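Morning F.,

Quick status update on the modeling queue. The single chain you submitted on Monday has been processed. Sequence for confirmation:
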Amino acid sequence: MLHQFKFENFYSFAETVEVSCVLGGQSPKNDLSCLADTGDRLSKLLAVIGPNASGKTNVLKALAFLQWFVADSFSAQQPNDDIPIEHHFFSENPNSTFQIVFDYQGQLYRYELTLNKQRVVYEALFVKTSKLYSYIFKREWDEKSHQYTIAQKDFGFDRKEAAKVRQNASLISTAAQYGVELATQMRLVCGKIFTNVNSLGRVSTASRIDELLEVTEVFQRNKSLGKQASDLLCKLDLGLQAIVIKSETVTDPKTQKSTEISVPYGIHRSGQAERQLELWRESSGTQRAYTLLSILLPALTLGGVAVIDELEADLHPDMLVPLLELFINPATNPKQAQLIFSSHSHEILEMLSKDQVLLVEKDPQGNSEAWLLSDMEGVRRDDNLYAKYRSGAYGAVPNL
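C-alpha cells below.
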C-alpha cells in the first residue's frame, strides 16, 4: 500500500511537496481508512482540490512518473533518449527529486530518485528495519569519473551488469531484465498503480473510438472484470441492461487486410424489444464511466492504487458517490485498494475527513503549492469542510 510520496522541482512545483496517506492517532477509525500490514493506518481516499491551472494534475503526474520510471524506463527508452522529465520553469536547480514509501509483504520500503533529462544522479532503495531504514542498493553519479558508484546489500544484481546500467533507466527496471527477484517484485508493486495520467497530462487516444476499443481489450482479457463493469454500469441509471463484447472483422480499405477486433455494445430493452448500440454511440457519460472502470476495477481486484485526474469528467456529480463507495465499502474493496483523484465536484468534501484532502494553488510567480487540510491550524474534525472551502476559509479557490 502507498504510505506517502514527495517530489521537488517538477512541472509547476519548485519546492518540496509531500503527500501522505498515513493517518494520525486522532483520525477516526472507519471505512475511509484501513490498517496496513505494517500496523500503520492509511487513508483509502485522497482528493486533490484546487482551481484550474493550480497544479492538481501535476501532483498526480509525479506519482505516475515514478511508477513508469521504476518499472518501464529500461524497456520504454532507447539508450540515448532523454528522460521525459520537466523541471519548474524558473528553477535554477538542474535536478528533480522524488521519494515514495510503500509496504510490500509486511515490510516498509522507501525509494529515492534524483535525476535530470540526461541521467539519473542518485537512486536508492531502502527497507525499514526496526526504527531505521537500511539500504538495499545505492547508485550515485560521480561527475569526476563519469560513472556510477553502486553499493548493494542483498539486492543480488551482478556487479558487472550493474556497472553498465544506462544513465536514463532505473536500476530496478534494469535488474528486472536479468531476473533479479527483488527487482521483479518491485516492478509488480508498480504494476498495481493504475492511472489515466502520463507525462503530458490526462491520457487520451487519437479518437474516442480508439480509446473505447483499447478499454474493451482490457475487459476481453479479463472477462470477470468485464462482467463487473457491465453490472456496475447497469446500476448507475444509464439506461443500460448490459454491456456485451462481440468479435468482429474489419477490413483496412487501403491494404484490404482483415483484422479481428472486440467491439462493445450497450444493450437497451423496452418491453420485449431489444436494441444494441455501439458504445461510441452512447452518451459521453456512459463512455467515461466505462473507461474509468477499466482503471478502478483492476486496482480494486489487486489491492492497488488508482490515480485519476478529473474523476467527475463527463459524469453527473451524483455518480461520484457510488464510484467512491467502491473503495470505501470493505465488501467491494476487500484488498484495501486506494484512490487518489483530482476533482472540481467539491460536494465530495462532505464525505471526507481533513486528512483526505490535498489543497493546491498557484502563487503570482507561477509556483504551485500543495498542503493537506489537516496541516492547517484551526481546522476541526467537525467542521463543515465543504462550506468552509466554498467560503474561501482554506484558500485554493479561484481568484475571480
